[in-house]
Specification:
This protein is of the alpha/beta class. The protein has two domains: 123 residues, ATPase, nucleotide binding domain (Nucleotidyltransferase, domain 5, 2-Layer Sandwich), CATH 3.30.420; 155 residues, Nucleotidyltransferase, domain 5. 33% of the residues lie in helices and 20% in strands. The protein is built from eight helices and twelve strands. The chain has a five-stranded mixed beta sheet. The longest helix is centred in the C-terminal third of the chain and has 21 residues. The radius of gyration is 19 Å and the shape is globular. The structure holds adenosine-5'-diphosphate and zinc ion. Zinc ion binds next to helix 4.
Length: 300
């Protein structure tokens, strides 16, 4: 019999929980808004208690969480959400709660590291081993896999907070990040549209100059990831990428920035469409990423 896993996509706006054995067998998915930790984590605990009654014991549980998070197994606060500005959630233990309750291995990582693992296992990263997954949503997060391993390092990658060059004459908006002037997240995540243009991205027409500027900043970010990590594929998800005109613009600007320097078939007109891609798992990248984290935890 196939092993049953639990999966939690712990987002700053909503939680998604599911159980299953793989992408073709994801059961009883539920979603609820992220309110206060007691309430939201209580709902998640209840869900898995019921699921175990219905389907039997879980083998492992995977949690892909909004951050920042503590991923250091030797730390007393391993498994916590740490310094988040999200009200009520700073220093909240998450993974330990589920480990205590269900007594199973817990795969605990950032939401985007989960997503890159899920894409590697079942999606756009199959057969590759060095990948980056960027989500362009309320914030910008980056999951990084190098040689088949998810990168944690000092804490975990904060790929959205790289500082970008900005022409202050053509773009006086310093960005929406409270920590940095001109970081990628501040300049290009969803809230930057309201800040710079006074309207949400979804309300701007496809020929609005906002999209060229957005693609410009995203391509600057990708050029740095390309230079440093040499990823075999770059996966771009998140609400802002729901704009069909963005992918071709980002690809062309990345080619222009590379300027034929790094020579590879992926960095050509013929190859770029399959180099910078949307998640193959689509809007299931988050929850399947959590499932992949569970599977990985079970085999450790
Ligand atoms: P989150 O990052 O909160 O998990 P999303 O990935 O859906 O969620 O990102 C939400 C952000 O994306 C919001 O800032 C929203 O304004 C923006 N967004 C959502 N849909 C679109 C769209 N079609 N075009 C541009 N921006 C969008
Ligand atoms: Zn920042």
């Amino acid at each position: 019999m196939k092993k049953l896993y639990g999966a939690i996509e712990a987002g700053g706006t909503k939680f998604v929980c599911a159980v299953g054995t793989g992408p073709e067998d994801l059961r009883d998915e539920i979603r609820f808004p992220t309110t206060k930790p007691e309430e939201t984590l209580g709902q998640a605990l209840d869900y898995f208690r019921q699921a175990e009654k219905k389907y039997g014991k879980l083998t492992a549980l995977g949690i892909g969480s909004f951050g920042p998070v503590d991923l250091d197994p030797s730390s007393p606060t391993w498994g916590s959400i740490t310094a988040t500005p999200k009200p009520f959630w700073a220093d909240t233990p998450v993974a330990s709660l589920f480990r205590k309750e269900f007594g199973v291995p817990i795969g605990w990582d950032t939401d985007v590291n989960g997503a890159v693992l899920g894409e590697h296992r079942w999606g756009a990263g199959r057969g590759l081993d060095t990948l980056i997954y960027l989500t362009i949503g309320t914030g910008i997060g980056g999951g990084v896999m190098i040689n088949g391993t998810l990168v944690h390092g000092l804490v975990h990658p904060e790929a959205g907070h790289m500082i970008l060059p900005r022409d202050t004459k053509t773009d006086p908006f310093r960005g929406s990040c409270p920590f940095h002037d001109s970081c990628l997240e501040g300049l290009a995540a969803g809230p930057s549209f309201e800040g710079r243009w006074g309207k949400k991205g979804a309300e701007l027409p496809p020929d609005h100059p906002a999209w060229d500027l957005e693609a410009h900043y995203l391509a600057l970010g990708l050029q740095s990831f390309l230079s440093i990590l040499s990823p075999q594929r770059i996966i771009l998800g998140g609400g802002v990428m729901d704009q069909p005109q963005l992918f071709p613009k980002v690809r062309q600007k990345l080619l222009a920035l590379n300027n034929h320097y790094i020579r590879h078939a992926s960095l050509t007109e013929a190859g770029i469409d399959s180099y910078v891609v949307p998640p193959a798992l689509g809007n299931r990248a988050g929850i399947l990423g959590a499932l992949a984290l569970a599977e990985a935890a079970a085999s450790r």
